[in-house]
Amino acid sequence: MFRRLSARFKAVPPYLAERVRSVPSEQMPGLLDVALTAVSLDEVAAAVEGMTAGVGNGSRAVEP
Hints:
Blueprint: H1 2-9, H2 14-21, H3 28-37, H4 41-52
């Protein structure tokens, strides 16, 4: 995922890299779709935020 994001947007900020690592593996195909079609890293960050909402607090994230 980081190779794809780096190839498309050059540098992935550390805060976004950390959030990407927290995306559940079953949602990675959806994140790849976003990474391939996003116009900006802000769009990727918004998708990651939606995919990781509730992760780590016992809640399940809802796939966008």
